[in-house]
Amino acid sequence: MSDWLAAILLGLVEGLTEFIPVSSTGHLLLLGHFLGFESEGKTFEIVIQLGAILAIVTVYFQRLWALATRWPHDPKVRHFIIGVLIAFLPAAVAGYFMYDVIKEIFFETPTIICVALIVGGVLLLLLDRMKTVPVYLDVNTYPIRVYALIGLFQCLALLPGVSRSGATIAGGLLLGTDKRSAAEFTFFLALPTMGGAVAYDLFRSWNDLDFTDFGLIGIGFVVAFVTALFVVRFLLDFVSRHGFAPFAWWRIAVGTVGLALLWAGVGG
In whole angstroms, how large is the CA radius of gyration of the chain? Predict the structure, then answer.
């Protein structure tokens, strides 16, 4: 496969998987492994995530603008912003101290990713079938304790294959949120989490980055943005109707196929 087709495919996968509970990082690493595609310093993989971040900003621009302008005089807005920041902190701290382990061991071990996909899929399937009565329906008014505990759940996603959105959604459901608001919170929590992760990645890898192939990076960025835009616009309604079982089965299938290919010696 040519680098151009690989860039389009990877951008498509990034956009489609970043905000659903299937682990975009796990999908990108596995696909890159089997396609034999890896940019110098992982510049491509880092930059195209910005396309997914831009999709959130685009869809939620009015709401983000309201948060930015109303927080000085609106206690409810301040409560939500503080909640997002509190939820962001655990993964930020853990990611800082575990950065080398994550990049040098977890990211370079496809078997770990496949197993995490399968285990996470089984757990998500069980969680989706739990009969619970939601207590918290409005993402803006979760108790601070709930925001904080969801943040701790997000730390699980430092292991590629777990899924950042999957971990936060699972945490939210176990803590008494409904499916729609749990999925919505992942969008807002993604802004500081993904933004911080990309910024720190760029800082740590700056001397190894290679921006000479702007064409590949550009096409991957655009494809990731367009596909993520679609996902962000329609995910909440999809989850409300179908729950998380389709994503759970997808995770199990991808992880199983990935292990089979690894054992057959494909890719690399």
Answer: 18
